[in-house]
Amino acid sequence: MPKIEIYTKSYCPYCKAAKQTLNSMGLSYREIEVSTSQALFDEMVNRSQRKTVPQIFVGDVHVGGYDDLVIAIKNGQFKKALAH
User: Fold this and answer.
1) What does it do (predicted)?
2) Mean pLDDT across the stretch 59-83?
3) Which domains does the chain have, with CATH numbers?
4) 33, 9 contact by CB (below 8 A)
């Protein structure tokens, strides 16, 4: 199973919701806190082409933010990404 990475900010409610969703699915992930590191924030923007959090990746596949995660779970794309 590919590694799940989630770029977050500690005060972000959508980040918390995304982490709760992944936790409820029994999935482990690497959380990358970007609120205190410009370098990590820049890395996130480079990878995702977005400046908002959360940004979720499954391996090299960019899932997107929280709303994108929910849609990907509902339409089966998230499960497909996990299978690769």
Assistant:
1) Has a glutathione-disulfide oxidoreductase activity in the presence of NADPH and glutathione reductase. Reduces low molecular weight disulfides and proteins.
2) 96
3) 4-83 (3.40.30.10)
4) yes
CA dihedral 69, 71, 14, 56 (to 10 degrees): 20
What angle, rounded to 10 degrees, do the helices at 13-24 and 66-75 form?
30
Q: At residue 58, what is the residue type?
A: V
Measured distance CA(25)–CA(20) in Å, rounded: 9
Inter-residue contact 41 to 12 (CB < 8 Å)? no
Instruction: Give residue-wise pLDDT tens across range 44-53.
Output: 999 999 999 9
pLDDT of residue 1: 61
Strand partners, 69: none
Tokens at 5, concatenated: 């990475």
Please state the pTM of the whole predicted model.
0.95
